[in-house]
Design goal:
The complex is a heterodimer of chains A (about 200) and B (about 1000).
Chain A lengths: L3 E5 L3 H11 L6 E5 L2 H10 L4 E4 L2 E2 L2 E2 L1 H10 L4 E6 L3 H10 L4 E4 L4 H12 L7 H5 L10 H11 L4 H8 L3 H15 L4 H10 L5
Parallel strand pairs in A: 1-2, 1-3, 3-6, 6-7
Antiparallel strand pairs in A: 4-5
Helix pairs in contact in A: 7-9, 8-9
Chain B lengths: L1 H20 L9 E7 L10 E7 L4 E6 L2 E5 L4 E3 L13 E6 L5 E5 L4 E5 L2 E4 L9 H9 L17 E4 L2 E7 L3 E8 L2 E9 L3 E5 L2 E5 L5 E8 L2 E7 L1 E2 L13 E7 L2 E6 L2 E8 L2 E8 L8 E7 L4 E6 L4 E7 L1 E4 L15 E3 L5 E3 L4 E2 L19 E2 L4 E6 L2 E6 L4 E6 L8 E5 L2 E5 L3 E6 L5 E5 L9 E8 L2 E6 L2 E6 L4 E6 L6 E8 L2 E7 L3 E5 L2 E4 L11 E6 L4 E6 L2 E6 H10 L7 E3 L19 E2 L5 E5 L2 E5 L13 E8 L2 E3 L14 E8 L8 E7 L5 E3 L5 E5 L4 E11 L6 E9 L7 H86 L3 H31 L8 E4 H12 L9 E4 L6 E4 L1 H18 L4 E8 L3 E8 L6 H9 L3 H6 L9 H12 L3 E7 L3 E9 L2
Parallel strand pairs in B: 18-22, 62-64
Antiparallel strand pairs in B: 1-25, 2-3, 3-4, 4-5, 6-7, 7-8, 8-9, 10-11, 11-12, 12-13, 14-15, 15-16, 16-17, 19-20, 20-21, 21-22, 23-24, 24-25, 26-52, 27-28, 28-29, 30-31, 31-32, 32-33, 34-35, 35-36, 36-37, 38-39, 39-40, 40-41, 42-43, 43-44, 44-45, 46-47, 47-48, 48-49, 50-51, 51-52, 53-54, 53-55, ...
Classes of the chains: A alpha/beta (about 200), B alpha+beta (about 1000).
Chain lengths: ~200, ~1000
């Protein structure tokens, strides 16, 4: 079967760099999208064997669409390629049966190696890393991570509730849970903790 | 033997009886000594207008031409020193006694005063006594009738016989004798002016100028009849002018005295008619005596003279006997005394006293020591220069002189038929007729040791007074032990057995009592005369007499025993001294016998200047009860009557003096007067100053307690005087309430004011806090925004710059292989390397910003350091300056450490990057040394190295010199070591740089794993 790869990342140069590397390992199609909406649209029109997906996309957190993608293309290999720390997202990704994660900060050699492995179907295990659960953000659930993303980007409760289609009370409750879990005393403190634990947004 | 002894006893008793019947030792009638009191010692004037002795309160009232005074035996109290009583300073014409005993007197203007509460009180100004009828009415309390008869002048010679009143009116040559009846005078008869009347047992007598007496026998309707009466005891009357003739003094009911020349008689009705008892024959001559009073308790005579003041005659109960053979070489001081068979007395020094004409034997044929002793067989023992001498008093001869034992001022005592002798050497003994033998030699006695007197406690124990205290000799044990020595080390001298209570007189420490092994100190008299007590003797009235250096003390034996049995408050004593006729007060002691009883009842005491003898029976044990009367109250030097204390005293009182009059006519030694102000202790006052001064008395109520008694009477007479000193208006209790109100208001106002001030201040502070809070919030919001902006910048740099740069580099690298044009290829390669450099710089900038703002790190993690270093070296490999430089990871695989992987990666990255920049050849190696709790990462290069100061600068960031030289070594922008220092501090690590210029640099990082 022809290898068909789709890269979803908001930076065109990232997509271009990845495409350039992937060309070394397959001769198939490599398409690119820059946000969640385009990805979902492209998936509906084309079939892909591999998906390289950034977590934070301009129109939202890709976690919001991963479940749908899994449901639609259960056999599609998905590689999460992100700056987010694996210990935060590892459990959730496992829950969605995603076993390949490649941090954007890895060296070029490592990047080449992992991309080649991904294309060739060798799963990238991150179980060891996940065990280091010292990061308080790793205790957050999917919805809480979604809300955290918006909070760190400066959105207010009402705006978040609108974007996620949830009630304001629900968002307030999730906010309280986030603050409690990461033991943040204020929003400023939450930001500091996010920096300390490499949570990008 | 017993018959012989009985015969001896008989002769001795007979001898003593002769002494009683014919007392040759002087024993005269009471002698009187007279003292003159005149203006020189307190009398207002020497012209006496009357004297009255108040025997109830024991004061003598003396009317003079210059005022009225009261005498208490020691001092005069004057009256008339305030405006209300100024008349008492004026001329008083008479002072008499009313029928009820009240003393009254008349001023020159015929106005009247009387004595009430021991102070003169003026009768109402309307009461005048001009004539005899008014006088008699007032004196005898008769009805003040509307007198219609003739006016007769007052003669002060009036009599009450049963219910009749008689009066004399003296004329030029004769006196008219009236009977006063129902407001009228009945003239009865005439008498010669020299004839005087008196009343005894309601019988009226007339005595003429030579002492013949007639008695009024009938008086009826103006007819009187007198009968002659016999009299006894009146010596021939001296009728010369100088003698003043006979003077009769009717001093009270049945108390009549007759004065003639030097004689004063008491007139009584005896079995044989009128009898005259001589009181004294020693009245002073030519004293113009007009008034006479007698204190029958003390036998003191008070005589008022016309112009020579007051004469006070005190009886002398004591007679001083001088030795009849003393001369300049033989002192008159007397110690031990012995009554000789001829009635004379001989002292141990050989002096003779008395007036016996019969020559008697001399017991002390040569001077002997002061301690003698008479045995039951009348052998007198003494020590003199011959030895121990035994003198037989019955045979009047020396019985034995012994030198068998050592002797020196020995004292003796007989127990059963054995005589014991105590001296400084030891104790000797003998039977009554045996030889002396030493029983006990003293090993050591104090210097000057002397035994004074011995007294038997029982047949086995003897008390011995010595110069070293009180000793006890136990015969059966032959032991001589001191049983008491007082703290003053005083000599214990006299000892007297008072029915088993032993009185011990000391020289310097008063009197002790000993009984049953217990010794008690008797309280001293206030003057401490008893400190030097010489000897004791008991009289027939069961009274103990004690001689001292300053007079004589008498205390009932019962009082002394009561002291022992009941306590010190029960002791009573009386002092006899100068006022009683002891002219030389110092008596002698330390001798035996000391005081002796003479057969005639007298007691003979050895004195410093002769013997002192007295008859104790003449000295009655009368218990005079002294009283204290408040006379005057002096407030700020203004004299007031005592009743002023019934009112509140003014608040401006600075000086308060309460002047008391004390009665009793006691000697100052027998007088005890004390006061106690409020809660202060008792204060004793002397009889010469009984004024109580209270300076600046405090405001409010005061209580003054007074108590007075004689030493011979245990019971105190007490008084309580209360007075109240007004508070000044500003300290009045109502004012205090006002002050409290004011204070409360002030406090309220103050609190109110403070509350207002506090509220204002609080409002200001609240505003300030509000402003500050607002300012802080604004600043905080600004800072938060800035932080958020910074974070946003970091996030953007991370996401939108760093990541694209990395992929730009990757893209460029991939393009290089696809482009054939060399120029384009070179350009792309340039883009590739530049983007890599930019990626590194950006990453470092991000790290710098990130770690500079961090205050804490996340929890440590376990990770594989080997892998971390591998990745790192792979990452930095493109930055090598020369392909020959080798990057070596010598850390063993699977080296798990506990640290912060991300921070450690950045730290190593910067250090390795620095090494890469300075290393053109050779290698850069990373190794590790691990221990249990720490590990050290060593980054070593073979680069160009640096100076020590540069290395120091890199570690500390502080080195001015190196900053100046920095361009020489500077290869980067300096951010790398900023990040290194920040991370080393955050990770609590330690960095050490060792570098040799031209050879390379070694950086050591020390980490703690705990």
């Amino acid at each position: 079967m022809e290898t068909r790869v789709i890269i979803a990342d908001d930076h065109s140069i990232v997509r271009m760099g990845l495409s350039a590397i992937l060309k070394k390992y397959h001769n198939g199609v490599t398409d690119e999208v820059s946000n969640c909406a385009q990805l979902m649209q492209q998936l509906q029109t084309e079939t892909y064997t591999h998906l390289i997906l950034d977590i934070i996309l301009p129109d939202g957190n890709s976690l919001e669409i991963i479940e749908n993608i899994n449901n639609l293309y259960p056999k599609m290999s998905i590689l999460i390629h992100s700056m987010q720390p694996i210990e935060v997202y590892g459990k959730i990704l496992k829950k969605y049966h995603i076993h390949s994660y490649l941090h954007k900060g890895v060296s070029e050699n490592e990047l080449n190696f992992h991309l080649e492995s991904f294309i060739k179907g060798v799963p990238l295990s991150f179980s060891k890393v996940i065990e280091n659960e010292v990061n308080p953000f790793s205790t957050l659930a999917v919805r809480e991570l979604e809300v955290l993303h918006y909070l760190l980007n400066g959105y207010r409760t009402k705006e978040i509730s609108t974007m996620l289609g949830l009630k304001m009370n629900t968002i307030s409750t999730i906010k309280s849970v986030i603050f409690e879990k990461v033991k943040a005393e204020s929003f400023t403190h939450l930001l500091q903790l996010a920096h300390v634990h490499q949570i990008s947004y | 033997m017993y018959i012989k002894l009985a015969i001896k006893q008989y002769f001795f008793i007979l001898f003593l009886a002769i002494g009683v019947i014919y007392p040759n030792v002087s024993h005269a009638q009471l002698k009187y000594s007279f003292e003159r009191i005149n203006t020189e010692n307190g009398l207002p004037a020497n012209t006496i207008k009357g004297v009255q002795f108040d025997d109830l309160n024991r004061f003598l009232w003396v009317a003079t031409e210059s005022g009225l005074v009261r005498y208490n035996g020691h001092s005069f109290q004057t009256f008339g020193d305030n405006e209300a009583s100024v008349n008492y300073n004026g001329r008083i014409v008479s002072i008499n006694r009313k029928q009820d005993g009240t003393i009254f007197g008349r001023f020159l203007d015929e106005s009247v005063f009387y004595i009430q509460n021991n102070r003169p009180v003026k009768e109402s100004s309307s009461l005048k006594i001009n004539y005899t009828n008014e006088y008699l009415n007032y004196k005898y309390g008769l009805k003040n009738t509307n007198y219609k008869g003739q006016k007769i002048s007052i003669s002060n010679k009036d009599f009450k016989v049963k219910d009749s009143y008689y009066a004399f009116l003296e004329g030029l040559r004769e006196s008219k004798f009236y009977k006063y009846n129902s407001g009228e005078f009945d003239s009865l008869t005439f008498f010669k002016n020299k004839e005087q009347g008196f009343v005894l047992q309601d019988r009226f007598f007339i005595i003429d100028e030579i002492g013949k007496i007639k008695e009024l026998v009938t008086e009826k309707k103006g007819v009187v009849q007198f009968e002659n009466r016999t009299s006894k005891g009146l010596l021939p009357v001296n009728v010369n002018k100088l003698s003043g003739g006979l003077q009769v003094f009717q001093n009270g009911k049945d108390e009549v005295y007759l004065l003639n020349a030097n004689f004063l008689y008491k007139v009584i009705i005896g079995l044989n008619g009128i009898e005259f008892k001589i009181i004294t024959d020693q009245l002073p001559n030519s004293e113009f005596i007009h008034f006479m009073q007698m204190d029958i308790i003390t036998n003191t005579i008070y005589l008022g003279t016309d112009n020579r003041g007051l004469l006070i005659g005190r009886p002398s109960y004591f007679t001083r006997i001088m030795p009849f053979d003393y001369n300049a070489t033989n002192s008159s001081a007397v110690y031990a005394q012995v009554l000789l068979s001829n009635g004379n007395i001989q002292s141990n020094s050989g002096q003779l006293f008395g007036n016996a004409t019969k020559n008697g034997p001399l017991v002390f044929y040569r001077p002997a020591a002061t301690n003698t002793y008479t045995t039951s067989e009348h052998q007198l023992l003494m020590t003199n220069s011959d030895g121990i001498v035994e003198y037989d008093l019955l045979k009047d001869r020396i019985a034995q002189i012994s030198n068998d034992i050592e002797h020196d001022r020995n004292s003796f005592i007989q127990v059963d038929s054995t005589i014991y002798s105590f001296s400084v050497m030891g104790i000797g003994s003998k039977t009554l007729h045996g030889k002396w033998k030493m029983k006990l030699h003293f090993v050591k006695t104090p210097v000057g040791f002397m035994s004074y007197q011995c007294e038997k406690i029982n047949n086995n124990e003897i008390l011995v007074t010595t110069s070293d205290g009180l000793y006890k000799y136990t015969i059966s044990a032959n032991s001589f032990k001191r049983i008491f020595r007082d703290k003053n080390g005083a000599n214990f001298r006299a000892i007297y057995n008072l029915r088993g209570y032993y009185l011990i007189g000391t020289y310097g420490s008063g009197v002790y009592m000993f009984k049953d092994g217990i010794i008690k100190h008797i309280p001293l008299d206030p003057n401490k005369y008893l400190n030097f007590t010489h000897c004791f003797i008991l009289d027939e009235q069961d009274r103990i007499w004690a001689t001292t250096n300053k007079g004589l003390f008498m205390s009932p034996a019962k009082a002394l025993i009561d002291f022992w049995e009941k306590g010190p408050g029960n002791i009573a004593y009386k002092y006899y001294g100068k006022l009683d006729g002891i002219d030389v007060l110092e008596m002698n002691g330390g001798c035996n016998p000391c005081a002796i009883k003479l057969p005639n009842g007298l007691i003979s005491i050895p004195g410093i200047d002769g013997l002192i003898q007295f008859d104790p029976k003449q000295l009655s044990d009368s218990k005079v009860i002294p009283k204290a009367f408040l006379d005057k109250v002096v407030i700020n030097n203004i004299v007031n009557v005592p009743e002023i204390l019934d009112h509140n005293l003014p608040s401006n009182i600075k000086y308060l003096e309460l002047q008391f009059g004390v009665s009793g006519m006691l000697s100052q030694e027998d007088f005890m007067f004390e006061y106690k102000s409020d809660n202060d202790p008792w204060v004793r006052l002397g009889i010469l100053n009984t004024n109580i001064n209270i300076g600046n008395p405090s405001f409010g109520a005061h209580k003054l307690n007074i108590r007075i008694r004689s030493s011979n009477n245990k019971k105190w007479e007490t008084q309580e005087i209360n007075f109240y000193v007004d508070f000044p208006w500003y300290l009045n209790p109502f004012m205090i309430l006002f002050y409290i109100g004011c204070l409360t208001s002030l406090i309220y106002l103050y609190i109110k004011l403070r509350v207002i001030m506090y509220r204002r201040k609080q409002a200001e502070l609240e505003n300030e806090v509000l402003n500050k809070t607002h300012s802080i919030r604004t600043m905080n919001a600004r800072l938060t925004k800035r932080n958020q902006a910074k974070d946003q910048v970091i996030a953007i740099m991370n996401h939108d710059i760093l990541t694209p740069l990395k992929y730009l580099h990757i893209t460029a690298d991939n393009l290089v292989n696809q482009i054939q044009d060399p120029n384009a290829k070179k350009s792309i390669q340039q883009i590739s390397s530049t983007t890599k450099e930019l990626e590194y710089q950006t990453a470092n900038m991000l790290n710098w910003v990130k770690f500079e703002s961090l205050e804490q790190l996340p929890p440590k993690q376990n990770f594989d350091l080997h892998l971390l270093v591998n990745n790192l070296l792979e990452f930095v490999d493109p930055f090598k300056q020369n392909c020959d430089v080798q990057l070596l990871n010598t850390i063993p695989p699977e080296t798990i450490v506990i640290n912060w992987p991300e921070q450690l990666r950045v730290l190593l990255y910067n250090i390795v990057m620095n090494s890469l920049r300075s290393t053109n050849k050779g290698n850069i190696s990373i190794s590790i040394i691990t221990n249990k709790s720490d590990f050290t990462i060593i980054i070593q290069d073979t680069g160009k190295g640096m100076s020590n100061s540069m290395a120091k600068y890199l570690v500390t960031g502080k080195s001015k010199d190196e900053v100046e030289n920095l361009p020489k070594y500077k290869t980067g922008n300096g951010v790398g070591y900023q990040i290194i220092r920040s991370l080393v501090a955050l990770m609590k690590a330690k960095i050490e740089i060792n570098s040799v210029e031209g050879k390379g640099t070694t950086v050591k990082l020390y980490f703690n794993q705990l």
